[in-house]
C-alpha cells in the first residue's frame, strides 16, 4: 500500500514538472515582453533575464497608444472583422441550406468549387489582386480587405455549416413549410437557431484568422484610413527604431485585445478551434 | 413543397453572394496570375508575352529550389518535433485534474492568438545579438552569448524554432481533444489487465488517435508549404535566400525586384504544389483507411 502511494506521488511530481516546463517555454517570451515594456531603453542591456524597472515606465504605453494610432487601427480591426464574421456566417448558412436541402443540378459542383478554396494559398492571390484592386479603384478602401477576408474564410465556413446542417432533422422545417413558411423565413426562424454551435465555431475561426492578418492589408492599403491593428507594430519599428522599450509596449498593447478576449472566451475558443480543425 | 425546395430564384439568391465573392477574390486572380506568368511585366508599362520563359527560368532558380527545401524542412520539423511533443503533452495534460488542466491548456494555446506581427518582432528581439533574451540565457549557462542567431547558417534553425513554438498550442489542442474523445472504458480495461502508462499510451491512445494524427499531419505539411508572414518579418528570406519560402519569394520578386511577371509564374507553381500536396496527402490517408 505504501509503495503504491509513493509511486503515485512521484508520478504526479514528474507530470507537474513536465507540464510546467512546457508552460514556461510557451509563456516566458511573453512575460519577457511585458517586463521590458515598462523598462527604459537602457535597461535592455542588462545581463539578467528579467528586471525590476526603477521606476516603472508606464509612459511607454502612452507613447505606444498615441503614436501607434492604437484607437484608429483598433476601431478598423473591430469593424472589418465584425463585418467579415457576419458576412461569412450569413453566406455560409444560405449556401449550406441551398446545397444540402434544396434540389438543383449544380449543387455538388458549386459546393465542391468553394471547398476547393481551402487548398488555395492566400498568398498566391496577393500579386493579381493588387493589380485588380488598383485598376478598379478598391485600393485603400474597406473592400480591399473585406472581400478577400470573407472569400478565404468562406470555404471552411461552408464546410462546417454543411456538416452541421446535415445532422439537423428536416422534420421541423417541413412542418413549418406546411404551415406556410417561405424558404427565407425557414432559414432565419427555424434552421439558423439550431446551428448555434457551428455558428460559434465559424465565427471564432473567421475572427482569429483575419484579426491577425497583415500581409494583404499591407499590400492593398497605403493610407492609414483602414489600416488594422498589426500596423501599429509594423509602423512603429521605423518610428522608434532605437527606443526598444516603447516598441515592446506597442507589441504588448496590440496583443492585449485578443489576449483579453481569449481569456474571457477561453472555453468557447478552444472548443471552436478543436471542432474546426478536426472537421476541416 | 417540392416546388418550394427547387425554386431557382431562391437558390440563386442564396448561392450567388458567396459564389461572386469566391470568383472575384480567388478564382479570377488565379486566372490572371496564369496570364501574367507568361509575360515579362515589371509592374509598370507594357506586358510582353514571352511564353514559357519564366517557367524555364524558375526550373533552374536556386532560390526557388531552396524555398521548396525549406518548406520540406519545416514540414519535417512540424511532423517529427512539434507533433510528438504535442501528443505527449496532450496525453499528460489529459491526466491532470480539472482546474490545472484548464489552466495549462489556456497557457499552451496563448501564443496562437497573438498576431504574427507581434510574434515575429518579439523573436527578433529574443534573437538580438546585443541584448536578446537567448544570448542572455546562454550567458547564464556560462557561454559567451555573442551568437548571431539570424546570421548565415543559424537563421533557418532560428526560424524553425519560432514556427514550432508558435504553432505548438494549436497541435496540442487538437490532440488533446482527440484523446478526450477516447472511450474511458478502454483505459479501465487496460488498467485491469495490468497495463502501465507507457503501454496504455502506445497500445491504446496512439492507435485510436490515428485519424486525428492524419488530419493534423496534413494540416502541418500544408501550413509549412504556405509559410510566409513570420519569415517575411523575421528574415525576409535572408541572409541571401537561406530562409526563403515560396510565398515570400514570389512577393519579393514582384515588389522588390520588380519582376511582376516572374512573381506570378512562381505564384502559379505555388498553387499547383499546394493543391497537389493536399490531394496526395488526402489520398494516402483515405486509402489506408479503406
In words, what does this structure look like?
- The complex is a heterodimer of chains A (about 280) and B (about 290).
- Chain A has about 280 residues and is mainly α.
- Chain A has 2 domains: about 45 residues; about 170 residues, MetI-like (MetI-like fold), CATH 1.10.3720.10.
- Chain A is about 75% helix and about 0% strand.
- Chain A is built from 12 helices and no strands.
- In chain A, helix 1 crosses helix 12, helix 3 crosses helix 9 and helix 9 runs antiparallel to helix 12.
- Chain A starts with a helix and ends with a helix.
- With about 290 residues, chain B is mostly helical.
- Chain B has a single domain, classed as Orthogonal Bundle (MetI-like fold), CATH 1.10.3720.10.
- Chain B contains 14 helices and no strands.
- In chain B, helix 2 crosses helix 14.
Brief digest:
The complex is a heterodimer of chains A (280) and B (290). Chain A is an all-alpha fold and 280 residues long.
Set down the secondary structure blueprint.
The complex is a heterodimer of chains A (280) and B (290).
Chain A: H1 2-37, H2 59-67, H3 70-100, H4 107-116, H5 126-135, H6 143-166, H7 171-178, H8 183-194, H9 196-211, H10 215-220, H11 230-239, H12 244-279
Helix pairs in contact in A: 1-12, 2-12, 3-4, 3-6, 3-9, 4-6, 6-9, 7-8, 9-12, 11-12
Chain B: H1 2-5, H2 8-37, H3 53-60, H4 62-94, H5 98-113, H6 116-126, H7 133-140, H8 155-180, H9 184-192, H10 197-208, H11 210-226, H12 229-234, H13 246-255, H14 260-289
**CATH class division of chain B:** Mainly Alpha
Q: Which fold name fills CATH's third level, the topology of the largest domain in chain A? A: MetI-like fold
- Total helical segments of chain B: 14
Q: How many domain modules of chain A? A: 2
Inertia-based shape of chain A: globular
Strand content of chain B: under 5%
- Please state the overall shape of chain B, judged from the principal axes of the Cα atoms: globular
CATH superfamily of chain B: MetI-like
Amino acid at each position: 500500500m505504501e509503495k503504491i502511494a509513493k509511486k503515485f506521488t512521484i508520478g504526479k511530481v514528474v507530470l507537474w514538472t513536465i507540464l510546467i516546463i512546457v508552460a514556461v517555454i510557451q509563456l516566458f517570451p511573453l512575460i519577457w515582453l511585458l517586463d521590458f515594456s515598462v523598462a527604459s531603453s537602457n535597461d535592455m542591456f542588462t545581463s539578467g533575464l528579467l528586471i525590476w524597472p526603477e521606476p516603472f515606465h508606464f509612459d511607454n504605453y502612452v507613447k505606444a497608444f498615441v503614436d501607434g494610432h492604437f484607437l484608429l487601427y483598433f476601431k478598423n480591426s473591430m469593424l472589418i472583422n465584425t463585418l467579415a464574421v457576419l458576412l461569412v456566417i450569413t453566406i455560409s448558412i444560405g449556401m449550406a441550406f441551398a446545397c444540402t436541402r434544396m434540389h438543383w443540378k449544380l449543387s455538388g459542383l458549386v459546393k465542391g468549387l468553394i471547398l476547393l478554396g481551402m487548398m488555395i494559398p492566400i498568398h498566391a492571390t496577393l500579386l493579381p489582386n493588387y493589380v485588380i484592386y488598383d485598376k478598379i479603384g478598391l485600393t485603400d478602401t474597406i473592400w480591399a480587405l473585406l472581400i478577400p477576408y470573407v472569400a478565404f474564410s468562406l470555404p471552411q465556413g461552408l464546410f462546417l455549416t454543411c456538416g452541421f446542417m446535415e445532422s439537423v432533422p428536416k422534420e421541423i422545417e417541413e412542418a413549418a413549410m406546411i404551415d406556410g413558411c417561405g424558404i427565407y423565413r425557414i432559414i432565419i426562424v427555424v434552421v439558423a437557431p439550431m446551428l448555434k454551435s457551428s455558428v460559434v465555431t465559424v465565427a471564432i475561426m473567421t475572427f482569429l484568422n483575419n484579426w491577425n492578418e497583415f500581409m494583404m492589408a499591407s499590400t492593398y492599403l497605403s493610407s492609414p484610413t483602414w489600416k488594422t491593428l498589426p500596423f501599429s507594430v509594423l509602423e512603429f519599428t521605423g518610428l522608434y527604431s532605437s527606443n526598444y522599450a516603447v516598441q515592446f509596449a506597442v507589441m504588448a498593447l496590440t496583443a492585449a485585445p485578443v489576449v483579453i478576449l481569449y481569456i474571457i472566451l477561453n472555453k468557447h475558443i478552444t472548443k471552436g478551434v478543436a471542432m474546426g480543425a478536426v472537421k476541416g | 413543397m417540392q416546388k418550394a425546395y427547387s425554386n431557382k430564384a431562391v437558390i440563386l439568391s442564396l448561392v450567388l453572394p458567396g459564389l461572386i465573392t469566391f470568383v472575384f477574390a480567388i478564382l479570377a486572380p488565379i486566372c490572371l496570375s496564369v496570364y501574367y506568368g507568361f509575360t515579362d511585366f515589371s509592374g509598370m508599362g507594357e506586358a510582353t508575352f514571352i511564353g514559357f520563359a519564366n517557367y524555364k527560368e524558375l526550373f533552374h532558380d536556386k532560390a526557388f529550389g531552396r524555398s521548396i527545401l525549406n518548406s520540406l524542412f519545416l514540414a519535417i520539423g512540424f511532423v517529427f518535433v512539434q507533433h510528438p511533443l504535442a501528443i505527449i503533452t496532450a496525453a499528460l495534460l489529459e491526466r491532470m485534474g480539472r482546474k490545472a488542466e484548464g489552466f495549462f491548456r489556456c497557457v499552451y494555446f496563448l501564443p496562437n492568438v497573438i498576431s504574427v506581427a507581434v510574434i515575429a518582432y518579439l523573436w527578433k528581439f529574443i534573437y538580438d545579438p546585443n541584448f536578446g533574451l537567448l544570448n542572455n540565457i546562454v550567458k547564464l549557462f556560462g557561454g559567451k552569448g555573442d551568437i548571431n542567431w539570424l546570421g548565415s547558417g543559424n537563421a533557418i534553425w532560428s526560424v524553425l524554432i519560432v514556427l514550432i513554438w508558435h504553432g505548438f498550442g494549436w497541435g496540442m489542442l487538437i490532440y488533446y481533444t482527440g484523446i478526450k474523445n477516447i472511450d474511458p472504458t478502454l483505459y479501465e480495461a487496460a488498467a485491469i489487465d495490468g497495463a502501465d502508462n507507457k503501454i496504455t499510451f502506445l497500445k491504446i491512445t496512439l492507435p485510436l488517435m490515428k485519424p486525428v494524427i492524419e488530419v493534423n499531419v496534413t494540416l502541418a505539411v500544408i501550413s509549412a508549404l504556405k509559410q510566409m508572414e513570420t519569415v517575411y518579418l523575421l528574415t525576409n528570406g535572408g541572409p541571401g535566400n537561406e530562409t526563403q519560402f515560396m510565398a515570400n519569394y514570389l512577393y519579393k520578386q514582384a515588389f522588390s525586384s520588380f519582376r511582376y511577371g516572374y512573381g506570378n509564374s512562381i505564384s502559379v507553381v505555388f498553387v499547383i504544389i499546394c493543391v497537389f500536396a493536399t490531394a496526395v496527402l488526402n489520398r494516402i490517408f483515405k486509402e489506408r483507411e479503406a
